[in-house]
Amino acid sequence: METGLLISILGAVSAIIVSLVGAWLANRNSISLQTRKLKEQHYTLYIEALHYLIADNNNENIGKYVFARDRLFLIANEDVIKKMIAFEENTNKKVDQRLHDTLLTDLVKSIRKDLRLKDKNFPHIYFKTNKKSSTS
Question: Which of 33, 54, 75, 136 has a CA positioned 20 to 30 A from the CA of residue 22?
Answer without folding.
Answer: 75
